[in-house]
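Quick start: what a row looks like.
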Amino acid sequence: MPVHVLNSMPPLIQVGIRTNRARQARGPGGKLLLRTALIDTGASMTAIDPSTIAVLHPRKRERIEITRPLAESLWAMTYDIGLAFEPDPAQREWWLRARWFNVKVIAAPPASAGVDVLIGQDILSQIVMSWDGPRWKLLLMY
C-alpha cells in the first residue's frame, strides 16, 4: 500500500494527470502532465484549472450544475482524466507503475495561487487519509 506524507499546510501534493483513453492501457497515450494539487475535503468533485484542461484535451463527458462557496450555482463541463499521486518522473516509464485514479472532473480555476488541481471527495473516498495534528502531517494511503 503506497503511503504519501504531506508535511506542508496547506496540504499540497504533486500529481500526474493524463487523458483517460483506451489506448493508455499500453502507456501514456497522449499528454502526461505534472501539476500541483491541494487536498480539498470540502469539494465533492475534483476540479482542474481550465488552462490545464486546454493543454490536456481530455474527453468531454456532460454538463452538470455545480455550486461554489459563496456563489450562485452554474453549469460546468465534466472531463475524463486519470490522476496519480506523487509520480516520480526520474523513473523510466513511471506511468506504468503508478496507481491511476480514473475520475470525472470539472474545469474550474482554484482560488489558491500556485495550485492547478483541487482533489475532491470523488478521489478522497477511494483512499485512507490520516491527519496527525500535533506533527502537522497528512498521510495518504491506498
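That is the whole record. The longest helix spans residues 50-56. The mean pLDDT is 86.
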